[in-house]
Amino acid sequence: MAGTTVTHTDLEGSLPLVARGKVRDLYEINDSTLLFVTTDRISAFDVVMRNGIPNKGALLCLMTAHWFEILSAAIPGLRTHFVSLELPHQIPSRFRDQYQNRSMQVQKLVIFKVEAIVRGYITGSAWASYKKDGTVCGIQIQPGLRESEAFPGGPIYTPSTKAEVGDHDENIHPDTAASIVGARYARRIEELSLLLYQCAAAYALERGIIIADCKFEFGLDKETDEVVLADEVLTPDSSRFWPADSYRIGEPPPSFDKQHLRDWLTNQDLKGKHGVEVPDEVVTKTENRYREAFERLTGNAWTGRC
User: How many CB atoms lie under 10 A from the CB of residue 199?
Assistant: First the structure.
């Protein structure tokens, strides 16, 4: 609903709670299906803030559903865990306004214990690593690059470990990812990640957005032995979006993600601190950036209703 911020979910036993993540709460619908509820919680530097961002959950959920549709049409044979945006019948009517459009029915999968990160441009932690020793996640990179420059040979795959809530992800070399999930699955995850990034980057650029880097998660359908795209996809929480019209090599562009929050935390010496209350000004600016990204990428005006 307009103006509502949902940082905690409670279905009062109508569905069993499976887990709470940094942003999503997972409920079990049946033996094969989960309900992902995207809250308005926001995290930065692996720490969840005390207050949330209004409408963020609905914006992320609907943006992910949009991407699933776009990518499934563009990549033959791609499987996603998406089932429906409809709420299951077990949800009582008193909850439906609050949870509609921030909830997604998804297929149960065995989630691979790596996060598949694709970087098209050198920025963030990749830039910091490159300045130090000329590598990104153990991969030697051509010398002479400037901050925010596109990787000369095209996007690179730099996976990370998938940490539990409260812990930190660790960047790893692709060979290490293979030792975690198995070589065959690792090859498929890398192949799909690069293909997904390339398709999404081209789509976004037509709409004035550069996808500097992004994170994908995959699961295994044990019945078919297929690697399936899971979790959220290409949202401001899992990707770094830059406005194309203000992109300049040699400087960090403004972004459509939560970089404004990260910058505020860093400037206030609150990076990594728990129990932080985000001020209204930062909340509003962050919500506006999420909303603008949604509208540009989907072509739909945001009505302010979740």
Answer: 18
